[in-house]
Amino acid sequence: MFGAVRTSIPRTRRVFADRRFLSSTVSRFSADQHGHLPTTQSPITPHLEFFNSVVGGGKGIPTYRVLDGVGNPLDGAQLPELDEALARRMYENMTRLPIIDNLLYNVQRQGKIAFYMTCYGEEATIVGSAAALASDDEVLGQYREMGVLLWRGFSYDSVMNQCFGTHEDAATKGKQMPVHFGSRELHFHTISSPLATQIPQAAGVGYALKRDPLRRGKNCAVVYFGEGAASEGDFHAGMLLASTIPSPTLFICRNNGFAISTPASEQYHGDGIASRGPGYGVHTIRVDGNDVLAVYNAVREARRRCIEEGRAVLVEAMTYRVGHHSTSDDSFAYRPRQEVENRKRLDNPLARFRMFLEARGWWSAEKEDVYKAQVRDEVMKAMRRAEGLPRPPVEEMFNDVYGGEMPWNVKEQKEDLKRLLKKYGDVYEPWRTELRKYKGEGKEFLEGR
Amino acid sequence: MAGRETRKMNMYQGVRDALSNAMMRDDTAVVFGEDVAFGGVFRCTMGLAEEFGRERVFNTPLTEQGIAGFGIGLAAMGHTAIAEIQFADYIYPAFDQIVNEAAKYRFRSGGQFSAGGLTIRCPSMAVGHGGHYHSQSPEGFFMGGAGLKVRTSIHTGSCLFDIFVQIVIPRSPIQAKGLLLASIRDPNPVIFMEPKVLYRSSVEQVPIDDYELPLGRAETLTPGSDLTLLSWGTPVYHCETALHMLGSPPESLARHVPQSLRSAKVELIDLRTILPWDVETVAESVSRTGRLVVVHEAGRTGGVGAEIGAEIQKRCFLKLNAPVKLVTGWDTPVPMQYEKFYMPDPLRILDAVVETLTY
Ligand SMILES: Cc1ncc(C[n+]2csc(CCOP(=O)(O)OP(=O)(O)O)c2C)c(N)n1
Ligand SMILES: [Mg+2]
């Protein structure tokens, strides 16, 4: 079913509007005989015409693709310069995501962690874009972008410590739900659950980069968000700010077809998220998000423009959320199981890229087995380790609320908890059991050390 | 409930039943929000789209400010707008629409227009592992934003004073159904916060007919003469547990609960409506007991407890035998791994009650 849709997509890809079309609209709208509205580029026309399409002629925005469904380059498509090492690194990173996801998903089911979100089906979008960025470009994610961090070297231990909320969780010190990763060292701003808040923030990050003589012209801000989050006012604010106060800000929309149960078709009536870019005067491309090479090419080129021009660029990656929204969701309550199975089978980003690699002798079934076994082993080890680690010390909860000196109210409340724990920590069973979960079992806190 | 047909319901079913009743009686009533069409992430709108059609029960795009504004527009046209914000933690993008628009629509138009037909439901409070973005109790923000002093409007009936958004928080399925129906039909916009941990855990025999419970009225759950214990939503249950512990403390806590206090008569009140809050009931109670402990999950500073404490200290100053005591979350974001030591629990409430009784 999906195969039929694929073949109907035109073979050549152009980022911007088809030239023939452009010239015909130009003649219609800009027969300069009537001049322009003062202070604008808008030609006066006697034709009463409405328009409702960014590429004109009622056509949809094209989708850029490099590899077909079986991993062969499309006619006319330019392959990225890609050596075996990089290609393998990309494939391996894509391959390990579902392994980690499977494990953590099941660990959540067993009640060992509170929550988890997988990125099944979006591996190409995440890894392809991560690979196209400089490792010190500033990333502001939504929550399904753990793969960007892993690409940059975030360890399995860091993943596990955050998800289990252990005392070694440097990302959030046990203060956030699982998958809310962050790392200053890896230039990945900590995830926040409220949707879309990171989008205008990215415009500010981009502007700071532009003002920094050491990073100007070298780095950009990169913001990831879902097609659902793009309905928030913050999306529009972010696009608008990055375009009117120009900054090297790269907007990457993961259009995976769903925002929890709400299909993308109920999220917008226009031509996806890409159609909004030109409204803000932003260079825009739509890309097949299941084709890792297309994503890689598009994001590399987007990044180049973004940095060279110091201006925002928007990339809309079309993909599909194969997994449930999160461990709190059962997606078969709102979409047929068969639809998901079809997408998994017919448009699998991993299979597509693997065929590309195999055709070049860069990958084999044997390598696949060895690699997967190794990842499983390492991830499992990290998981077991984190599982055995205590939470941070109890008093940690009062830290990092403020920088500098702790204000009196927090100080007094901390003292109040100390008083309560001293009084009841040893005798009240629910507290005693709970205290054992923290590093130092509350003792350091109680002894005021 | 005698003589009325009832059905066993949990709280999300109670909410759903109220929505169904409201839509049955009022053809202008619509239910909308993120993911409501398939039943909502907490199942409160389950089956409503099938029952009433997608024109009346629909998904919105993901925009809380849009949801609130859209609801105000419907209400301004005399329709009944029942909006869902998926989590109370995500209500802030709608803050402007609620505080500057819904709450002032009537006032600023000299009573010509109003957003009174708007009700915004949102799941709130903690579940124990939600961290700071799935646990909040933001009622305090709206209490200030909407203007507390307008409480008297209910009694004067003067539209000039009707500039508030009301805030309602139920503790059980029966309460949820009756208070939600009253909220939907109240001539003022209402924010209806549903403690999400109770959606499944709280179960009662709920009348299946259409009934309302009064807004702006607290409910006294246990009468008493020695101390007034005031709360709303989830911690009402922790208060009940604390009072059991006070009466018969477990062996391990016995030495912390003096024998003389074990027969203390504590009056437990569920405030139910946060704005306008029922100052008469609370002040009358505190005038008799001379002691007040307020329990809420939100942080202390700028919280509802602080407002109540100030008012009660003013009204009952000479009757008070102890300072008004607050048992609240700390002034930090709700910290995921530390929630058990962040949220008021039965022991912290017990401690506060004992301290206040022995002050
Ligand atoms: C402001 C806000 N509103 C609602 C939510 C609840 N919520 C969490 S994820 C989600 C869907 C997001 O969909 P999308 O942006 O498409 O990202 P995807 O999950 O598909 O990756 C919703 C509604 C939230 N986190 N923040
Ligand atoms: Mg999505």
TrEMBL record, chain A:
Instruction: Decide whether keyword Lyase is in the record.
Output: no
- Give the E.C. number(s): 1.2.4.4
Q: Which cofactor does it need?
A: thiamine diphosphate
**Molecular function terms, GO-annotated:** branched-chain 2-oxo acid dehydrogenase activity
Q: Which Gene3D superfamilies match?
A: 3.40.50.970
Query: Sorted alphabetically, which keywords does the UniProt record give?
Result: Oxidoreductase, Thiamine pyrophosphate
Q: Which GO terms describe its biological process?
A: branched-chain amino acid catabolic process
- Per UniProt, residues of the Dehydrogenase E1 component domain are 93-394
Task: List, alphabetically, the Pfam families matched.
Answer: E1_dh (PF00676)
Instruction: Please describe what this protein does.
Output: The branched-chain alpha-keto dehydrogenase complex catalyzes the overall conversion of alpha-keto acids to acyl-CoA and CO(2). It contains multiple copies of three enzymatic components: branched-chain alpha-keto acid decarboxylase (E1), lipoamide acyltransferase (E2) and lipoamide dehydrogenase (E3).
Entry similarity comment? Belongs to the BCKDHA family.
Name of the protein = 2-oxoisovalerate dehydrogenase subunit alpha
From TrEMBL, chain B:
- Which cofactor(s) does the record list? thiamine diphosphate
Tell me one GO molecular function of this protein.
branched-chain 2-oxo acid dehydrogenase activity
**Gene3D superfamilies found in the cross-reference section:** 3.40.50.920, 3.40.50.970
- An example of a Gene Ontology BP annotation on this entry? generation of precursor metabolites and energy
Q: May I ask which residue range the UniProt record assigns to the signal sequence? A: none
Q: Which reaction does it catalyse?
A: N(6)-[(R)-lipoyl]-L-lysyl-[protein] + 3-methyl-2-oxobutanoate + H(+) = N(6)-[(R)-S(8)-2-methylpropanoyldihydrolipoyl]-L-lysyl-[protein] + CO2
Which part of the chain is the Transketolase-like pyrimidine-binding domain?
A: 9-201
Which EC number applies? Answer: 1.2.4.4
Enzyme class name = oxidoreductase
Q: Record's Pfam families?
A: Transket_pyr, Transketolase_C
Keyword terms: Oxidoreductase
State what protein this is by name.
Answer: 3-methyl-2-oxobutanoate dehydrogenase (2-methylpropanoyl-transferring)
Q: Which organism is it from?
A: Ceriporiopsis subvermispora (strain B) (White-rot fungus)
User: Lineage of the native species?
Assistant: Eukaryota, Fungi, Dikarya, Basidiomycota, Agaricomycotina
